[in-house]
């Protein structure tokens, strides 16, 4: 926890608007009702922005969310000489790359910075990217990214905490991922677009964000087939050209609000989402007794007074998303019965449990499973965010709790949710951001 406090203090010293010390104050017990528009997906926008490194000229991307992580990757890219203009759309141009180093200072703030590694090596022939270091939810090594880059013929060394990669031109290869890694699949798919010959990715991740990235790369002239399945084939080309494309809606933001509706007995319509990306969650929420109806690109989530407890096991897509595990645990904390939640993707993604217990939840952790015995009500209290999705879980719990919940270290939530307090307030929640 010391490291995180140091981070908060560093931000404190550097920024006039002391974001790090902001808190959220939530008065629980309000029923959510109304409609909100879902923003673009953080986990689609980050690889799409990294893909701009592959082409010379102005790309135009629509539906890029206004998030801290997007600001961070744009800052990282600007360090390589990449220009960007944010307006209704985001325009970005890597036509004059002046550098290839991603510093520890930036990479440690956002692990997704690793996504510049593949495109930089493919486009410029070299890259020096800091190893990400530790993370609250798990070790999260990048060994599979490194192995796959070597499979494509790059010379990769680890020195002084950095990944140093060089290749005159990458060569297509058949690559087998020991684990279906999302950013690993994205990194290597991008690198392979400019390799000589054919690359086949086996045991590739199948997330919708990968399909979105493949669509963008194809608009740039890449030859990719199989994205969304566990075998992706990329025919290397000599060069790519700028594209205009859209970022898909954020399925994790949408899922978070669906759960909020369930926890407050609410009736919420989500506009501009893609219900087909939420089938695992939708099935589970129907099991709890919620009524979920799909209406084109919107989805209506209606809570019921009594929440039936259900068991959850997180899996790679299309299984139940690990990024919604903390949120549905908050829901199970007020369900009628016992719910066993098993986290199979990350080895330490229960940091929210001790904070939920502070709010009155009855949870026992056993290995990678948590037994959640529903309680009639949670009681508001001061709690602390430890990571992005844990923050969301604690906000949801605060919405359902009796009394006041104060969530500190709000900078975690700003990484992945666009003005969450405004969207929740528009649905009737009593939530406000306070500084200091
Ligand atoms: C992506 O992270 C997401 N981030 C995560 O979302 C998400 O939780 C995760 O995929 C799983 O769905 C982005 O897309 C930016 P992985 P990623 O590589 O790619 C192990 C959020 O809250 N692994 O699919 O880093 C790894 O430790 C974030 O928005 C290796 O062992 O996840 C994990 O156990 C959190 N070696 C498993 O694979 C490697 O080289 C899956 O990780 C790479 C991964």
Task: Give a quick precis of the structure.
The chain is of the alpha/beta class and 436 residues long.
Describe the structure.
- This protein is α/β, with parallel strands linked by helices and 436 residues long.
- The protein is built from 15 helices and 24 strands.
- The strands form six sheets. The protein has a four-stranded mixed β-sheet. The chain has a four-stranded mixed β-sheet with strand order 2-15-17-16, with helices on one face.
- α6 runs parallel beside α7, α7 runs parallel beside α8 and α9 (251-263) runs parallel beside α11 (325-332).
- The longest helix has 13 residues, at 2-14.
- It is elongated and about 65 Å long.
- 50% of the residues are buried.
- Bound molecules: ligand EPZ.
Low-confidence regions: 9-18
Please bin the fraction of helical residues.
25-40%
Largest sheet: 4 strands, mixed
| C-alpha-based Rg, rounded | 21 Å
Strand order of the largest sheet: 22-23-1-24
Provide the residue-averaged pLDDT: 94
Content of β-strand: 15-25%
What labels would you give this structure?
4-stranded mixed sheet; binds ligand EPZ; single chain; alpha/beta; elongated; 436 residues; 15 helices; 24% strand
What topology emerges from the helices and strands here?
Elements: H1 2-14, E1 23-27, E2 33-37, H2 42-50, E3 58-62, H3 68-78, E4 83-86, E5 90-93, E6 101-102, H4 104-107, H5 117-124, E7 126-130, H6 143-151, E8 155-159, E9 162-166, E10 174-176, H7 182-192, E11 198-202, H8 208-219, E12 223-225, E13 231-235, E14 244-246, H9 251-263, E15 267-271, H10 279-287, E16 291-295, E17 298-302, E18 312-313, H11 325-332, E19 338-342, H12 351-358, E20 362-366, E21 369-373, E22 382-384, H13 388-400, E23 404-408, H14 411-414, H15 420-426, E24 430-434
Parallel strand pairs: 2-15, 3-14, 6-7, 10-11, 18-19, 22-23
Antiparallel strand pairs: 1-23, 1-24, 3-5, 4-5, 7-9, 8-9, 11-13, 12-13, 15-17, 16-17, 19-21, 20-21
Bound molecules: ligand EPZ.
């Amino acid at each position: 926890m010391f490291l995180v406090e140091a981070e908060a203090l560093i931000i404190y010293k550097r920024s006039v608007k002391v974001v790090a010390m902001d808190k959220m104050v939530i008065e629980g017990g309000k029923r959510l009702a109304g409609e909100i528009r879902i923003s673009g997906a953080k986990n689609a926008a980050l690889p799409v922005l990294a893909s701009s490194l592959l082409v010379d000229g102005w790309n135009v991307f629509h539906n890029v969310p206004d998030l801290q992580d997007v600001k961070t990757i744009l800052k990282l890219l600007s360090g390589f000489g990449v220009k960007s203009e944010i307006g209704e759309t985001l325009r970005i141009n890597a036509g004059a790359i002046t550098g290839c180093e991603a510093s520890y200072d930036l990479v440690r703030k956002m692990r997704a910075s690793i996504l510049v590694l593949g495109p930089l090596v493919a486009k410029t022939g070299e890259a020096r990217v800091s190893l990400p270091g530790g993370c609250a939810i798990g070790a999260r090594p990048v060994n599979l990214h490194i192995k796959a880059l070597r499979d494509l013929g790059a010379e990769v060394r680890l020195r002084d905490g950095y990944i140093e990669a060089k290749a005159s031109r990458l060569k297509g290869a058949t690559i087998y991922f020991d684990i279906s890694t999302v950013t690993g699949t994205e990194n290597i798919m991008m690198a392979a677009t400019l390799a000589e010959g054919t690359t086949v990715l086996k045991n590739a991740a199948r997330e919708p964000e990968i399909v979105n990235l493949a669509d963008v790369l194809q608009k740039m002239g890449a030859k990719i087939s199989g994205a969304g399945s566990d075998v992706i084939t990329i025919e290397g080309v000599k060069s790519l050209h700028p594209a205009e494309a859209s970022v898909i809606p954020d399925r994790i933001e949408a899922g978070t609000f669906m759960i909020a509706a369930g926890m407050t007995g609410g009736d919420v319509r989500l506009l501009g989402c893609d219900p087909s990306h939420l089938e695992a969650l939708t099935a589970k929420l129907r099991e709890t007794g919620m009524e979920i109806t799909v209406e084109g690109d919107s989805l209506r989530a209606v809570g019921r007074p009594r929440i039936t407890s259900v068991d959850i096991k997180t899996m790679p897509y299309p299984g139940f998303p690990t990024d919604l595990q903390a949120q549905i645990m908050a829901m199970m904390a007020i369900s009628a019965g016992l719910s066993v939640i098993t986290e199979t993707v990350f080895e330490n993604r229960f940091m929210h449990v001790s904070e939920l217990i502070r709010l009155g939840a009855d949870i026992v952790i056993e290995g990678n499973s948590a037994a959640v015995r529903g309680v009639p009500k949670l009681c508001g209290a001061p709690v602390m965010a430890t990571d992005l999705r844990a923050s969301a879980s604690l906000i949801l719990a605060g919405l359902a709790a009796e009394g006041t919940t104060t969530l500190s270290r709000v900078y975690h939530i700003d990484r992945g949710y666009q003005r969450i307090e405004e969207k929740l307030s528009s649905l009737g929640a009593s939530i406000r951001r306070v500084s200091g």
